[in-house]
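Pipeline run #58 for the internal structure catalog. This entry was flagged by the ingest filter as a single-chain record with no existing model, so it goes straight to prediction. Upstream metadata was stripped on purpose; only the residue string is passed forward. Reviewer on rotation: M.T. Logging verbosity set to normal.
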Amino acid sequence: MKALVLQRLFDLSDRQLEEACRFDIRYKYILGLELNDMGFDHSVFGKFRDRLLTSQKHKEALFELVKMVTNAGLIKQNESQRTDSFHIIANVAVPAASELIREGIRICLRQLKRHRYDLFYQAQEKLDTAKYLKGELAKGLKPEPDEILRRQRLTEIVEDAKALVAF
């Protein structure tokens, strides 16, 4: 439902909305998606709208939601919406890379724990494996405004990844 509100707000096609849900950090944040979540296939939106058209209750809920958002001043009828995201793209590159590396570490640790507990035990001695397995690093993590801190965080994660690969 949130995705359809965003689609209407920014006048996006289903395919544009699919792309935004996959690659735009702003959409991921609003929709509550993880950075590595691949979002939705464009066909999902059409199917959902078809269900809305066949069910009066769903249709009423959608129109009520759009009316509430319009009344709140978040959507204005027939008004163009523009955003400048140039600065956002630059600031997203390092956190996205660090999240991908974190996810790789998580996957490796899970596999070691299942199939090679002896190596997992060694990894526990060198790394704080709990923070990766529980996903604590990514939860509540806000992008660092300072480029130096972002790079330091990325360097620490890369060092953990290198230590893990050494096993």
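catalog note: The longest helix spans residues 86-115.
catalog note: Residues 2-71 form one domain.
status: ready for reviewer M.T.
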